[in-house]
Amino acid sequence: MDLDGIRAYLGRIFREQRQGDEIVRLNEPEVFGLLQLAGLETAPAAFLPPAAEQSARTAWADQAQQLASASGGRLLLKVTGRRILHKTELGGVKILDAEVTENRKTLLAAADSLAEAVAGQGADADVEGILAEGFVPHTANRPGQEVLLSLRRDPAFGPVVVIGLGGTLTEWYGKGCRGESTLIFPAAGLTEDEVSRALGAHPLLRILCGPSRLYDQAPVEVGTLASAVCALAAVGRSLEEDQNAEWRLAEIEINPAVASSGRLVALDGVGALTTATAAAAGRPLARIANLLQPRSAVVLGVSARGDNPGRIILDNLCRSQGIPKDRLAVVHAREQEIAGVPCCRDVASLPGKFDLAVVAIPAEGALEAISDLVTHNKAESIILIPGGFAEAGRQDLAGEIERTLDESHRCGDGGPVLVGGNCLGIVSRDNYNTFFLPSYKLPFHPGLGENLAVISQSGAYLVTFASNYDGLISPRASISYGNQMDLTVSDFLAHFLEVPEVQVMACYVEGFRPDDGARFLELACRARDAGKRVIVFKAGRTALGAQAAASHTASLAGDYAVARACLESAGVTVADSLNHFEDLIMTFTLLAGKAVTGRRTGIISNAGFECSTVMDQLDGLELSRFDEGTQNLLDEILPGFAHRTNPIDCTPMTATDAFAAACGAILDCATVDAAILASVPVTPSLNNLPRATAGQHGEDLEDPASQPRQMIDRIDGSAKPAVVVVDSGSIYDPMCRMLLAAGIPVFRKIDRAARALSAFCAVAVR
To answer: What homologous superfamily does CATH list for 305-422?
Structure first.
């Protein structure tokens, strides 16, 4: 593969064709030239430029006749042009038979007629010539014969390679398979073994590289396909290396490449180059420590008489443990003091430099406030609260703030770091709270979660999480990062990688900044190698619009599909829904100290429907076979009417002591790596309700012999991960809170429990 030649080749096309546009498209002969430099086979072809001299036309006709002769007299003619993306719809494709191709004159006339037909539709400037292409034996529209193969540069994650079933039915396959007709591979670090394994496991794509009812022998060797994928990946990686290049490869798409006599041959292709954007200045990321653990703070935008966001933030800061009140200040043009905090008339008058500045001024005034903080060097870090920037159509205002910060990062001490705008603020556990919500509406009570950081683009999501888990899970940091004008989700991931106490990083992401996705992947790989867990909920699943080469790839592998594939390749656990996201956060946070040794799972329930349901929802968990000693013990513990093999159905008649003892036996079993301990608690056989004030019953969940207390003792005494299921109504909430407060994940449905535990145990098989 000639990587230097590819860079020079594409650079020349970009310089020659760029006419002030952001995108320079490649015509089909140029795409074929690139593929040949990459070592991929293309259909034999001859190109006839428009207005060619007679000698050139004659030479082309001779070549075309040779191509036809090699194909039994048949020849494919295609109009080409860098803006003609769908030739068939324009009538720009014609199949010629031997009667036409055997005569040079009729062959040239057919080429001229094809060009004129397209030009007659108003596409004169787009017609760049006619391509004569020899037939490559294959059966069109037959699964396993045609492949979609694409190299695409994702704006966030960089180059990715997409492979799928190709041809004119490409979109049909995609819709019929609900978007599961492709495989997406990040180019970075891709190997042929990885591609081969994925192709062999894919329910559709393995028809390309394995025998089936359609094919006694595979249409193409899996190694040939994997080699083609990795060749495109190598091109993508190579073109990313030159950070000073004025252009980037946006996309190269081959559709179809056909399996023919064991070869993979490209028949058609489109492509595009795009103008490169200047890299932003490096940011002083060490100042994230000032942001999350400040010892001084100033608030801009505080009302002296009403509860505006700035005043609520000030009141919350006054109650903070991490910032002494005498290290707080307010910028206010008229007041001398607000809420016992001294005021300065402007930023320039502030006494010294503050670790944290909170700007709660409406968007129109925020630019001046940030400029003053930068100019007078008054802040190590800034939280920009208000919205009204890019999300409200004020890209100009957002751009000015970003330029101000970028300039500060390029000189002096690097200037401040900024989180926001359009963010709710930050709650740093045991340090401070800058959410602009009063404590009586959103209290923060102590709970587990010192090992958790929640990093969310949505402030409102953080509110719901904090409220739902108040007193149970209290993250070390809850960060609303908003529009990412300066600090990005990857910056916070990088910070917490260096905080030993943080073992779980949960990220709610709506979008990545350009190239920040690729950095996120690098950091996620580091987190995985360090034994830390990264969870992502990626909002926004609408398909990517047909950009770049207006390609089939864009409709089949949109931004969500690319993001998910890239994230999972880096060991990130991707949540499918908000419920799943919170299930994963709870499970990973509370089980962080438990050893993951495998996926063999022991299950107990007192309800037959749970045992049946979980068998269909193991989601990758393996049902353990209890060893002989454990099976004998269970036979002694459980009543004779119980089903005592895995999953155990002990029925509602099993009493508290026997149920708890069976849970302990499962956890002690040498052939069990993890456990799901479930019960429908409404049976009077189990002691799990709070003590009754009127004597309706004799249960007391605070009794050491109660079901939750005994389960806590058994689970705490085991190094194995275990989750509990309590599938009943609100009167069992106290039982659930008791278990959660003890650090045990609790679910109200067994299928959700199995899915979350499976994700936690998945690290054992990576």
So the answer is: NAD(P)-binding Rossmann-like Domain (3.40.50.720)
